[in-house]
TrEMBL record:
Keywords: 2Fe-2S, Iron, Iron-sulfur, Metal-binding
Signal peptide location: none
Spans through the membrane: none
Keyword Transferase: no
Top-rank lineage group of the source organism: Bacteria
Family matches, as InterPro entries: Cbr1-like_FAD-bd_dom, FAD-bd_FR_type, Flavoprot_Pyr_Nucl_cyt_Rdtase, FNR_nucleotide-bd, MRET, OxRdtase_FAD/NAD-bd, Riboflavin_synthase-like_b-brl
Cofactor(s) in the UniProt record: FAD
Ranges where the FAD-binding FR-type domain occurs: 14-115
Name of the molecule in the record: Ferredoxin reductase
Keyword Metal-binding: yes
Length: 251
């Protein structure tokens, strides 16, 4: 894959790179996508993340990890950040950072929770909340690479207002089936009542275990543990179920 990070080149991954904000766009009332130019970026694989470091004028420095939302390749990197109200970093990124401002990136990080275009098996993506971000990188990488591998995305959110990438995921995309599940408030006329993800949801909207799909599950810890357990219960091989989870980090 041209321009992509090569697993094993740790020296390249662990360098800090200057990243300049080019654009910030709202994804929801509490989340924003930030587009950065990163000269010398080694490229990334769909599903990887970066460490982001902010340094104040007085020398104080802090860092957080964020999943990459953009497709593989190139020197532009997109992050979608969910604002944590009492957080130290996310409110600055989502509300205050302006085009031309800079931070530092270290990465890309991660080699297990990734999808490569040369994979041929069907793909099931299961996302809870902002866990959609690394899965969106997979969706975009598939689309931009012209892959014909069939994808199914099951995306659980509290309400329609909490959906990320609503416009993009609402467009017709051959070979990509998207299902939204709502836990608190569903759109009018929605047949499924609001509630947590169930095994039946995965039967209805996922792939049969006999198809041996590659399964990627990302979201809060409790959601990921339940979804992964349901998939195994439904007959999916544990080695085909890859998980990424997140929890409170100080924002």
């Amino acid at each position: 894959m041209a321009g992509a990070a090569v697993p094993g080149r740790l020296g390249g991954r662990l360098r800090w790179h200057a990243a300049e904000l080019l654009e910030r766009r709202a994804e929801s009332a509490t989340a924003a996508t930030l587009v950065f130019a990163v000269p010398g970026w080694p490229g990334h694989l769909a599903g990887q993340h970066v460490d982001v470091r902010l340094t104040a004028e007085d020398g104080y420095s802090t860092q957080r990890s964020y999943s990459i939302a953009s497709a593989s390749g190139g020197e532009r990197v997109e992050l979608t950040v969910q604002r944590v109200e009492d957080g130290e970093v996310s409110p600055y990124l989502t509300d205050d950072m302006m085009p031309g401002d800079r931070v530092e990136f270290r990465g890309p990080v991660g080699g297990w929770f990734v999808w490569r275009p040369e994979q041929s098996e069907p793909v099931l993506l299961v996302a809870g909340g902002s866990g959609i971000v690394p899965l969106m990188s997979m969706v975009r990488t598939r689309r931009e690479g012209g892959s014909r591998v069939p994808f199914r995305l099951v995306y659980s959110v509290r309400s329609p207002d909490d959906r990320l990438y609503a416009s993009e995921l609402g467009r017709d995309s051959p070979g990509l089936d998207v299902t939204h599940l709502y836990t608190r408030r569903a759109p009018d006329g929605r047949g499924r009542p609001p509630g947590r993800l169930t095994p039946d949801d995965l039967v209805r909207h996922g792939w049969p275990a006999g198809f041996e799909p590659a399964c990627y599950v990302c979201g809060p810890t409790g959601f990921v543990e339940r979804a992964a357990a349901y998939l195994v219960l439904l007959g999916h091989a544990p080695g085909k179920v890859r998980t990424e989870r997140f929890g409170p980090s100080g924002g």
